[in-house]
Amino acid sequence: MEVEDDHRRKELLVLVVIVVLASLSLVSLLVAFSYYCYISNKVSKRLKIRKRVDLEDEGSFANVEKNSTEKGLQVFTFKQLYSATGGCSKSNVIGHGSFGCVYRGVLNDGRKVAIKLMDQAGKQGEEEFKVEVDVLSRLHSPYLLALLGYCSDNNHKVLVYEFMVNGGLQEHLYPVRRSNSVSVKLDWETRLRVSLEAAKGLEYLHDHVSPPVIHRDFKSSNVLLDKDLHAKVADFGLAKIGSDKAGGHVSTRVLGTQGYVAPEYALTGHLTTKSDVYSYGVVLLELLTGRVPVDIKRAPGEASLVSWALPRLTDREGVMHIMDPALEGQYSMKDVVQVAAIAAMCVQPEADYRPLMVDVVQSLVPLVRSYRTTSKIGSSSSSSASKSPTAHDKASSRD
């Protein structure tokens, strides 16, 4: 009997072990199967999200194309634009935009245009192309360069703008020898008007659009001049939609041009409309001084235009020390001090201390109006009197 009991106990023990091992195996299989289902589901979701994003990107540009066509933008073929630029002839190159060469062109209907051709395919160029078409198809202001049409033909991405005869402000402030373009001497009255018109361009982006548009690459080469030297803001390839909250910011990769980028944006990537205000202040300093924003050939302490000029903008003697010698005898001390004060506020290191563009515009309007009035008075008197600083000081004191 005892032998039978031992045998039964052993059989029972073996059976229990087998059941336990089978249960563990089953649990392991269930766990493995569950994990497999979890991973498969996660991968599937990611693929679906990626596919949806890709479709949204395609759809977003499809919407851009639809909206832009509805708003009067013409869609060109590459063949049309290639012909308009004389086969992208080097003799027709008039500049470089944020992602390619800009050519002078003539369309079949005789219109003179500026044609910007993306010279390197890639995600950044594609994005800039989409942004510029999207932004400019929705913005309409006499102070912004008008986009007339575009071409998105296979790998060819081309933008077609109205033609600005006198090109960029930069090339007239700093004429380059051996350049094909003819520079125009910008007198004080013209510089004052250009500063106001450029300010109105940024004011439109910041205050007349909701949410605001931040240019992000405002500089003197992106202020273009027509045949009468009126200014328009151009090149929106790096533009960014800003925060619709008062004092809010958007976080983004730091892009822009050295010497024009606001310090807080450069340090943190936090972009606001005040970042454009800083860039505008740098351009205003260029108009005052005739100096480039960064010049390493200058004496120690003078390489950075902002660092060199800012301490001198708050007193009369300091302001006179930084003025462009080419402007001598064309301005009144009163007006220069006011413009210098505006520039000083715009390039403040702390963004909160900078003015809004609407405030800048309101400050410049009476100065430009004063010069228009003075010019009319001067035109009816002798030319020597109209150009005399003393005569203009008297006219300014009457306003």
Automatic annotation (TrEMBL):
Region named Disordered = 375-399
Entry keyword annotation includes Kinase: yes
Q: What is this protein called?
A: Probable serine/threonine-protein kinase PBL7 isoform X1
One MF annotation (Gene Ontology) recorded for this entry = protein serine/threonine kinase activity
InterPro entries cross-referenced by the UniProt entry: Kinase-like_dom_sf (IPR011009), Prot_kinase_dom (IPR000719), Protein_kinase_ATP_BS (IPR017441), Ser-Thr/Tyr_kinase_cat_dom (IPR001245), Ser/Thr_kinase_AS (IPR008271)
A Pfam cross-reference name: PK_Tyr_Ser-Thr
TM ranges: 12-36
- Residue numbers binding ATP: 116
Keywords of the record, alphabetical order, are: ATP-binding, Kinase, Membrane, Nucleotide-binding, Serine/threonine-protein kinase, Transferase, Transmembrane, Transmembrane helix
Superkingdom, according to UniProt? Eukaryota
Q: Which organism is it from?
A: Cucurbita maxima
Please note every region of biased composition (Low complexity).
375-388
- Respond yes or no to whether keyword Aminoacyl-tRNA synthetase is given for this record: no
Identify the residues that the record assigns to the Protein kinase domain, covering every copy. Answer: 88-368
Q: Where is the composition biased (Basic and acidic residues)?
A: 390-399
> Which protein family is it in?
Belongs to the protein kinase superfamily.
